[in-house]
Design brief:
Blueprint lengths: L8 H9 L10 E4 L4 E3 L13 E4 L2 H6 L3 E2 L13 H13 L7 H8 L3 H12 L3 H19 L4 H7 L5 H12 L3 H7 L2
Helix pairs in contact: 3-4, 3-6, 6-9
Length: 186
C-alpha cells in the first residue's frame, strides 16, 4: 500500500532495520508469512525483505487480516497526546523541504508554539526542530546511497538552506561527513 508520507519501500525498509522511532504511527510493517504487524521501531527479529509490506493506516492493516505484534504493541496508544504528536510528525515528514518555523508547525495543529514544543519534547524526547533535522538527514542519507547527485544539491533538496548547517547536523547525527557516508555505503 502506498504511504501518504511519500517514503519509498526501501526508505521504509531502512527505517525498520534501524528501529527508528521517528516514523512510529506514520506507517506499519506487515509480515506476510506470520500475519503480524509492527511499529517501525519494533526490536523483534527482522523478517526477510520479500515477506514485508507497509501500510499507513492501522485500520487497513487489521482489515487485511494482520494481528498486532505482542512486543511493540502497535495498536496501543501510549499517551493521550499520541494523535497530536502523530499529526505534528506527519506534517514534518510531508513538509520537510519547506522552511518551517515553530509557529508554522503549531498553526498546523492548532496549539501555541510554547505548548507544542513542551509537549513534543515530553512525548518524543526531542524538539520539533531536532525531529525535522533528523527527517531531513534521513532523506539525505537515502539520497547519498541511492543517487549520484552532488552533496550540495542534496543539501538544498532536503530542505537545508545553508551547507554549513547541513554538514554540522549530518555529522552530529551520523558521526561522519556526507562524503564519508557516501563512500562507506557505495
Amino acid at each position: 500500500m502506498k504511504s501518504i508520507i511519500n517514503l519509498t519501500f526501501d526508505e521504509m525498509w531502512d527505517k525498520i532495520m534501524a528501529c527508528d522511532r521517528t516514523y512510529d504511527g506514520q506507517f506499519y510493517t506487515t509480515v506476510k508469512t506470520t500475519k503480524i504487524y509492527c511499529r517501525p521501531s519494533c526490536k523483534s527479529r527482522k523478517p526477510k525483505k520479500i515477506n514485508v509490506d507497509f501500510y499507513d493506516d492501522i485500520v487497513a492493516v487489521e482489515r487485511a487480516g494482520f494481528r498486532a505484534c505482542k512486543r511493540c504493541q502497535p495498536e496501543v496508544e501510549h499517551s493521550p497526546h499520541t494523535q497530536l504528536i502523530k499529526n505534528v510528525t506527519s506534517f514534518l515528514i510531508k513538509e520537510y523541504k519547506q522552511q518551517l518555523t515553530l509557529q508554522d508547525i503549531a498553526n498546523n495543529v492548532g496549539i501555541s508554539p510554547f505548548y507544542l514544543e513542551r509537549l513534543f519534547k515530553q512525548e518524543t524526547a526531542e524538539t520539533p526542530r531536532r525531529y525535522l533535522e533528523k527527517i531531513r538527514i534521513d532523506k539525505a542519507t537515502h539520497l547519498l546511497k541511492s543517487t549520484d547527485r552532488t552533496t550540495l544539491a542534496i543539501c538544498y533538496d532536503v530542505g537545508f538552506h545553508s551547507p554549513s548547517n547541513f554538514y554540522k547536523v549530518f555529522r552530529r547525527l551520523n558521526k561522519c561527513s556526507p562524503t564519508e557516508y557516501r563512500n562507506m555505503h557505495s
